[in-house]
Structure to design on (1000 residues):
């Protein structure tokens, strides 16, 4: 990919700015590292089973597991998200790697080469994607082997392909206290950049070279494994958990940097490095490269499965079995169900207890032996956990005759699913050795049925007015003159809910500081549906959104939403969506239609001339292992037709990492830099960082280039995410939380 | 100019210098929310930061000095629990004692801060309100006999970082280490010392070892303090003191029953 345009797109609820502050202000980024104690005393915690993961492999200058400038075959722990920075000889690389599967990783890189003085830039900035697949694991004699494609879809300044093998050996302990060390020996064959020095053969003749400044963005498969190939290799010795010594032989001649231009001087093919594992997540390194340059790197590895602070939730009240307190016949009567006032007392008791757990009672339906509670969950990420708390409150505060408990989470005023569980099962299973699995076996999950006529609603909920003030940040990436821009300021949000399912909401925004307004003007030949970011950024006090929304359930397995108003910075209009999602199905289908008008740059009540219809048919599929596939087809904001493929990995604890691409009938030339729309996104949950329950997170969507093709309007309250969270696959994945 | 983004945690300073970072900090702390709507992440984060600051500023509580008179004045029996790894001591009051369909009496002890420990015949079967909870466990209970009744398999379900459960299965050997006299807050108790030595059977790795220890009253002891179901039922004997493993996150707990 080439030079950049810049644009901001905030998908979730905040961004890295706040994250950075949060991390530095509240988190222990301490220097403790997990150490394997040698010969621990039986009876000590060190001798007992441990869940801590193995030490992470070290990364190379490209952000993949490896040596210094060369890769190794190692993979990160499944799900790990690695962020790294490396620098040498005026070249800096910012790398993000995600280990998508145990055997597959993908990286995104943004790099700058100072003084390249080519293609019209002093400093050449570029973006690229890598993908690596492990072909087989390490055996007793057999090394682990990995195939990698580096910068495989860009203009390919770093384009290379390789096969690399790594074998680990144990080395003797240096002292009695430290454990044995590890020696990793890697060797590989590289093409492209990695075949440019000391080539030993050639496949397919001359390899097409990269053209700086071209559109880029398309898979350069005609180049893969073509041209000269050369061997590379090296060793990493880890005498203990903290230190690592590295030496490698590089097959990268740095032709462009040293022969075409004069970025640095390559005097040798040997590189040396020393790395220090500061904490389980942080690793720092210093290097001497190519006989002339000093380099350094910083690596951070986050594993979504290893929270920075595990969530602590106060214990729920234990189930008090009816056998303890309902000892006489009178306790078991159903006479109470005829008395409205008695039912109101029960409602208020339940509401009060739910409030202690941070939950909100929407309605309660009390019959003689059956009770249903509808509740809102603003607190727990896991709906299962909220359901477990509601069920226990019901078991402790409803009359003894009630045996069937129905627990219905409510989202946007509509019941999303109903968990049905027998009270005697709750009483019997709370301290079963396999309490979670046992509960899953006896609980039933079904669609939420319409609420009974005589159900008691909460008196305090409607109409309701809420407001909040808080900071916002809006980053913007990859402008060649300044690759990172950001605006920060304050949002004032208010909402009014007159009745279940209805909402009127708005956000006033005041920018306090920022530099997005100095971004580049759009050069797009399509309607400027997304690229006028700097024009929009000229105004400091804006109305970010103001809309009326309604959600309802039009029929069996169907959910619907309608909105009218100003949806986002750039568009307002009308929007409607219908989603089909049976509670127990992994598949969901939806259609959405929007008629939108582009808002004026000042983001108040006026509009520009551009109006369009945009809408999609969507299919969502929960593939298992927390993967969700989403396919959309339809008409995009610039009037282009096409489809989007997205894959997200949504961890139970709220971590979300995914990627997407959109192909439409806009030609690569009309689309501009990047040729088609693509990007990746992630969300880091707040509770994962803070260790207290929260449903919120900080997310970012990063596109290598923000253009106008393949863009969708951001409408508030899209249905799928919230509904999925209360349906079978998601509830069952989190079954362990029911009793917590 | 050279590129200056860092993906990690240094860039706020770069972006606008310290002043802007401070502005942002102030804005964060000023965030607030009212009404039943869900607060935004920024609001929750600022509240959390405020809480951390308040906690840091709050004076440390004085360590409690226990006396028997103080314990006798308690309306409910209490446990003293020490988290060995974190050198934390807590006092938990009995909230509920009950039976279910499995052998043993379940006792549910809770502390004011929302921590709870649950035992079956004095053997830890669950923890709540902690960072790495023991979700559930299978123990060797028999009738109302305190402590482990026999060796054999024990299994633990433990919370792991991704909101899911992980199982640890151990094979245990029960050993009677003979009589021991305990002194708990001005009172001495003749007990028998039982040890449960458990090994995990992970393939290929060195076996992991857990050792649980129990000191169980040798003689029935009529309670001198307030009468409760728990004590009435256990007029026979109690697990007076124990050291039990609660999983890799919590480590070992040292537990003393302070009831008179």
């Amino acid at each position: 990919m080439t030079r950049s345009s810049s644009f901001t797109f905030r998908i979730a609820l905040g961004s890295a700015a706040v994250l950075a502050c949060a991390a530095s202000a509240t988190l222990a980024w301490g220097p403790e590292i997990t150490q394997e104690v040698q010969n621990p005393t039986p009876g000590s915690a060190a001798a007992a089973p441990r869940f801590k993961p193995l030490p992470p492999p070290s990364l190379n200058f490209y952000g993949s597991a490896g040596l210094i400038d060369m890769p190794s075959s190692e993979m990160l722990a499944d799900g790990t998200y690695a962020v790294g920075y490396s620098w040498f000889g005026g070249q800096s690389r910012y790398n993000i790697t995600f280990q998508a599967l145990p055997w597959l990783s993908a990286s995104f890189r943004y790099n700058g080469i100072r003084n390249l003085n080519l293609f019209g830039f002093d400093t050449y900035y570029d973006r690229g994607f890598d993908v690596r697949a492990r072909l087989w694991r390490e055996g007793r004699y057999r090394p682990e082997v990995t195939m990698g494609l580096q910068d495989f879809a860009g203009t390919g300044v770093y384009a290379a392909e390789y096969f690399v093998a790594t074998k680990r050996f144990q080395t003797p302990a240096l002292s009695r206290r430290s454990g044995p060390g590890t020696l990793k020996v890697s060797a590989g064959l590289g093409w492209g950049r990695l075949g440019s020095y000391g080539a030993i053969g050639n496949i397919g003749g001359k390899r097409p070279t990269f053209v700086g400044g071209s559109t880029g963005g398309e898979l350069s498969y005609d180049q893969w494994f073509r041209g000269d190939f050369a061997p590379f290799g090296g060793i990493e010795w880890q005498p203990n958990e903290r230190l690592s010594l590295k030496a490698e032989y590089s097959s990268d001649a740095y032709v462009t940097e040293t022969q075409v231009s004069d970025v640095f001087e390559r005097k040798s093919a040997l590189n040396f490095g020393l790395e220090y594992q500061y904490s389980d997540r942080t690793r720092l390194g210093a290097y001497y490269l190519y006989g002339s340059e000093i380099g350094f790197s910083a690596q951070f590895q986050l594993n979504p499965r290893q929270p920075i602070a595990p969530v602590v939730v106060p214990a729920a009240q234990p189930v008090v079995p009816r056998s303890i307190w309902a000892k006489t016949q009178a306790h078991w009567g159903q006479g109470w169900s005829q008395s409205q006032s008695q039912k109101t007392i029960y409602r208020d008791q339940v509401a009060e207890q739910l409030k202690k757990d941070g939950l909100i009672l929407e309605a309660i339906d009390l019959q003689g032996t059956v009770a249903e509670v509808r509740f809102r969950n603003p607190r727990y990420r896991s709906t299962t956990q909220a359901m477990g708390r509601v069920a226990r409150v019901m078991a402790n505060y409803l009359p003894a005759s009630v045996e069937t408990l129905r627990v219905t989470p409510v989202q946007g005023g509509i019941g999303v699913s109903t968990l049905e569980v027998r009270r005697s099962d709750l009483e019997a299973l709370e301290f079963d050795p396999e309490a979670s699995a046992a509960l899953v076996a006896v609980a039933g999950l079904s669609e939420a049925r319409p609420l009974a006529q005589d159900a008691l609603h909460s008196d305090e909920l409607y109409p309701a007015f809420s407001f909040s003030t808080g900071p916002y940040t809006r980053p913007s990436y990859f402008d060649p003159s300044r690759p990172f821009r950001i605006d920060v300021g304050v949002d004032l949000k208010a909402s009014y809910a007159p009745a279940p399912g209805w909402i009127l909401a708005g956000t006033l925004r005041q920018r306090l500081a920022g530099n997005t307004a100095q971004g580049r003007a759009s050069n797009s030949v399509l309607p400027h549906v997304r690229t006028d970011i700097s024009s929009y950024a000229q105004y400091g006090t804006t109305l970010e959104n103001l809309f009326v929304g309604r959600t309802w359930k039009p029929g069996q397995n169907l959910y619907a939403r309608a909105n009218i108003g100003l949806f986002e910075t750039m568009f307002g209009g009308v929007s409607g969506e219908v989603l089909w999602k049976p509670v127990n199905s992994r598949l969901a289908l939806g259609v959405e239609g929007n008629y939108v008008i582009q808002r004026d740059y000042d983001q108040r009540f006026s509009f520009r001339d551009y109006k369009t219809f945009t809408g999609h048919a969507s299919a969502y599929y929960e593939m298992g292992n927390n993967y969700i596939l989403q396919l959309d087809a339809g008409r995009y904001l610039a009037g282009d037709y096409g489809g989007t493929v997205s894959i997200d990995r949504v961890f139970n604890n709220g971590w979300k990492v995914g990627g997407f691409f959109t192909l439409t009938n806009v030609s690569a030339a009309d689309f501009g830099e990047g040729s088609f729309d693509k990007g990746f996104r992630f969300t880091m949950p707040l509770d994962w960082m803070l260790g207290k329950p929260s449903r919120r997170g900080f997310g970012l969507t990063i596109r290598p280039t923000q253009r106008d093709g393949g863009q969708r309007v951001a409408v508030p309250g899209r249905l799928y995410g919230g509904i999925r969270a209360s349906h079978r696959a998601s509830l069952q994945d989190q079954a362990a939380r029911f009793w917590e | 100019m050279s590129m200056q983004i860092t993906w990690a945690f240094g860039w706020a300073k770069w972006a606008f210098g310290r002043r802007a970072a401070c502005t942002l900090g102030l804005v964060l702390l000023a965030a607030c929310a009212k009404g039943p709507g869900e607060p935004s992440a920024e609001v929750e984060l600022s509240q959390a930061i405020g809480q951390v600051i308040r906690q840091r500023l709050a004076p440390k509580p004085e360590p409690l000095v226990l006396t028997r008179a103080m314990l006798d004045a308690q309306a409910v029996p209490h446990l003293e629990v020490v988290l060995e790894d974190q050198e934390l001591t807590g006092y938990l009051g009995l909230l509920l004692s009950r039976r279910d369909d499995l052998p043993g009496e379940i006792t549910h002890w809770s502390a004011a801060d929302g921590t709870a420990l649950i035992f079956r015949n004095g053997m830890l079967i669950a923890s709540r309100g902690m960072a790495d909870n023991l979700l559930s466990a299978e123990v060797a209970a028999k009738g109302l006999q305190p402590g482990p009744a026999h060796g054999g398999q024990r299994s633990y379900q433990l919370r792991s970082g991704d909101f899911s459960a992980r199982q640890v299965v151990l094979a245990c050997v029960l050993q009677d280490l003979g009589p021991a006299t305990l002194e708990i807050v001005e009172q001495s108790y003749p007990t028998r010392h039982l040890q449960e030595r458990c090994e995990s059977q992970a393939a290929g790795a060195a076996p992991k070892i857990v050792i649980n220890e129990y000191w169980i009253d040798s003689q029935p002891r009529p309670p001198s303090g307030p009468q409760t179901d728990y004590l009435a039922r256990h007029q026979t004997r109690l697990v007076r003191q124990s050291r039990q493993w609660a999983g890799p996150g919590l480590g070992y707990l040292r537990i003393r029953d302070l009831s008179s």
